[in-house]
Amino acid sequence: MKKGRMVKNLLLLMALTLVLGGCKDKKDEQKESLTDNRSQEATGEPIMGGSIVVGIPQDLEDSLDPHKSVAAGTKEVLFNIYEGLVKPDEEGNYKDAVAKNHEISEDGRVYTFALRENVKFHDGSTVTAQDVKYSIERCAGINGDGTPLVAAFSNVEKVEIPDEKTVQITLKEPDTEFLAYLIVAVVPEHAKDLDKQPVGTGPFTYVSRSPQENIVIQKFGDYWDTENQAYLDEVTFKVVGDSNAIVTGLKGGSIDLYPRVNSTQSAQVKDDPNLTILEGGMNLVQALYLNNSEKPFDDVKVRQAMCYAVNRQEVLDMMADGKGTIIGSSMFPAFEKYYMSELADRYPQDIEKAKKLLTEAGYPDGFEMTITVPNNYQQHIDTAQVLAEQLKQVGIQAEIQLIEWDSWLSDVYADRKFQSTVVGVDAAYLSGSALLERFCSESDKNFINYKNAEYDTLYEQVRKSVDDSEQIQLYKKMETLLSEDAANVYIQDMAAEVVLRKGYGGYVFYPLYVQDMAKIYKIAE
């Protein structure tokens, strides 16, 4: 099956059309082709050079090694440093990156990639087929202890090099969505410590990191895509988690860009003539995530009662001025072909029904619980506070416990030592499995300990299917099970508001949780 048939637009029905003409390069075409839902700031003539300071809510605590990082906040920064055989664009397509083209066999088992000539790593070495082979095998655990660093790569049977410019990946089971996972970073085999010194092929190269302060990246002069090199010379990601400090930094000029401000911050800066607010989707599944192995959340009636107890629209109204999209399962609207809007209506607020379910479960007077929330995400704190008040109506007393982000990653996500938590779960890859695989019983990412044999069976059927329409229906059945089982109290896909300083342009919203700094430019005065 040829590349032209297999590069899928997973999220939108039509690809963006670039208007060609005159002597314009791709940067000019890009500037003119941005549509309203991806770039809303004032346009102007872009210039090469300059720098920008981007505020981020937490330090990159987990790992700078792209095969080991798990936090969305880390991945959005590393997107600028690393690239895979393919990379996503703002339309949800997979575009060849380190590879110049690819083919996928009809049975969905063999993926063949022809590599580009003279792609450079940031240390000056040239990418070889052996580097690609090493990267894929490292993710699959083939050359290690057998434990995959990336779960989806457990399906990799072997990686071969037919010639010095070709890499062939053979899967154990058919998987026509596996291309989505090949955005995973290609790294040099000789790299010794990627966690301390990242080495990728992306448009920016790693410079330095000051813990709890910042991470600095610079334009990579030898970037292979000469027509799409970064405009800016330097980007500083500045750690600014305090809500007041964010507003002060934006108004005072020490922060030029802050993604995902909350409604309070947005209101505080909206009248500043030096700032522009851009609106898009956050592409996160925000929910009250419940540890299904902890009492009382091991009882489906308790979980369903909690779903009936909450008023999702009130949550949106209280914490985001009504902005956002109410959802009913672990899928957000940008995954258009998988998304089931009808599940958002499954649990309308019904206090009496909630109380009845709690009584049937043996909790007629309710119970006490703890909601653990990372203290650097005000949106999640605000949501938890509204939920706590709503749950009181059915006798559930919820105590909110704020913890540091690194503690959340270790205690809640990794060790699963929690009762409930409010966070947003992203999709690291543009595939249905990116959001739904994590709830399989044996998945390392299944931090809520959800177990349903039917769900596991459906996912195995998905993995073996090579029919797109069949996969869609199977994924929808999985989403429906999560909703029926009230695996979590699903809330919303949060609205994303981005604050950008006047004098900059080119910001683009992606269907993934990334910040593409290569597209941002300073505007000529």
Structure overview:
The chain has helices spanning 3-6, 26-33, 72-78, 129-140, 243-252, 263-269, 300-309, 312-320, 351-360, 378-391, 405-414, 432-436, 453-464, 468-484; strands at 46-47, 51-56, 86-88, 94-96, 99-104, 110-115, 156-163, 166-171, 204-210, 214-219, 234-239, 257-258, 275-281, 285-290, 325-326, 368-374, 397-403, 420-425, 488-493, 495-501, 504-505, 521-523. 26% of the residues lie in helices and 22% in strands. The chain is α+β, with helices and mostly antiparallel strands. The strands form 6 sheets. Strands 15-19-14-18-16-17 form a 6-stranded mixed sheet. The protein has a 4-stranded mixed sheet with strand order 2-11-10-9, with no helix packed on it. The chain has a 4-stranded antiparallel sheet with strand order 5-6-8-7, with helices on one face. It is built from 14 helices and 22 strands. The N and C termini lie far apart (49 Å).
User: Widest sheet: strand order?
Assistant: 15-19-14-18-16-17
Please bin the fraction of helical residues.
Answer: 25-40%
Average pLDDT, all residues: 89
Largest sheet: 6 strands, mixed
Q: What is the rounded Rg?
A: 23 Å
- Gap between N and C termini: 49 Å
Number of strands: 22
Oligomeric category: single chain
Low-confidence stretches: 1-40
Overall structural class, as computed from helix and strand content, comes to alpha+beta
Overall outline: globular
- What fraction of the residues are assigned to beta strands by DSSP? 15-25%
Number of helices: 14
